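Budget justification note: compute hours in this period were largely spent on complex prediction jobs such as the one shown. Inputs:
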Amino acid sequence: MRDVAVIGIGCTPFGEKWGSSFRDLFVEAGTLALDDANLSGEDIDAMYVGNMSAGRFIEQEHIGALIADYSGLSTRHIPSTRVEAACASGGLSFRQAVIAVASGMEDIVVAAGVEKMTDVGTGASVDALAGAADREWEGFVGATFPGLYAMIATDYMSRYPLTREQLAQVAVKNHYNGARNPIAQFQQEITIDTVLRSSLVADPLRLFDCSPITDGAAAVIVAPLDRAREFTDTPIRVLASEQASDTITLHDRRDISTLDATVAAGQRAFKTARITPKEIDLVEVHDCFTIAEICAIEDLGFCKKGEAGMLTMEGVTALNGDLPVNTSGGLKACGHPVGATGIKQVYEIVTQLRGDAKGRQIDGAKIGMTHNVGGTGATVAVHIFGV
Amino acid sequence: MSVARFWRKIPQRYNLIGTVCKTCGRHFFPPRSFCPDCRRSGEIVEYKFKGTGTVVTHTIIRTASDQFEDLTPYALAIIKLDEGPRITAQIVCTPEDVKIGMRVKGTFRRIAADGASGVIYYGTKYVPDE
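Corresponding output:
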């Protein structure tokens, strides 16, 4: 297996991009990544693209070919492959690119992620997202995604001393970070009161506990580590690339409040990278809902079950804390174009490890981690990066 | 959901027909035809669930997909059936009254419909059983 490095990154601003099409978004992200690596399309050997549901959102399938075509690569006939794992599509797309390079099959590979969600109304969007859970035995009976995570929150709060205010602080912290990220969908800081006064979506989760519906795309380029300096002065090493699966339904999990796939992928990643959680300088976790960030911090092994709410309130996960979590603003404030999120997480960690994150920079950051979840935890991708 | 896709699952949705492994006694809903514990030594037969169980966790859905929007707010729960499997289902009562540990029983109800003239989907919801 060859060592792999990230040599280029690009990301569109996230938001409700009424003027941009699906094609516009990924071409913009791809161009930014190529420019960043000083590459032309001639140098690309293969592409992977994470996309959850273009079929539902824009009635378009066959995304791999579409992207290669509109990226100007159709005449070179490179392999271009769509990767789907609901909200973890981006993380798995990145992992496929890493595997392609590590194996020696390819040298210069693009890992992209894209989702155009606002071309359908909220109801249709909620229904498309429900496809990340079990359509026959969850969606059919009226389960929504916020509803499933709300049931995790109800279970969690009945067993551990998590307060409503601690949960709200996750969103407050992520909005604070988003306000310092120029690509974030939401650039305003909020207070705990903002969260507690927002409308209930699925009890106990309120509107400000939920990540938004977002358009956006991100792309990164990976290459063998021993060639990385041909393209960049600041290659970022991929120290671990791991993935795990679990039951598709929430109700079949061993423990409703623990994402066992996160535990498994996290443990494998630490083992592969030969480091411990204490050595991680910052982490991007999958906070599709505030409760999801609480579970992620614990399930990745950064603290014991039941402690993450208290640590969040104490500021441990804030920009100036011991373990900054979601410096990008996370899914909550940076936005959540589902297929693009896993790649945006890589974009953020690489930006931080290069020292380019400006107002949200974690000084001296050397090791970062990404955690991308599909559905309610049926798929998890975890990556560790180092300078 | 297409007519065929719904029709295929009518025994499960209307009558809670699952399966049980006679080798180890483990019950499955929705039905499985292969016991993950006993594998090839397992013997799977049909089993009609009693439809009684206990609420494990719950929520109140206030924003739903288009098909369920007219129903909001409604109670949704994960229920542990007395035979062992857990399922997700709606609970028909004042949504705020649902509590963890509450006993519930299945009842035949209309779940959703494809517009004014499309298929009406029936299935099992749960009501308090105390």
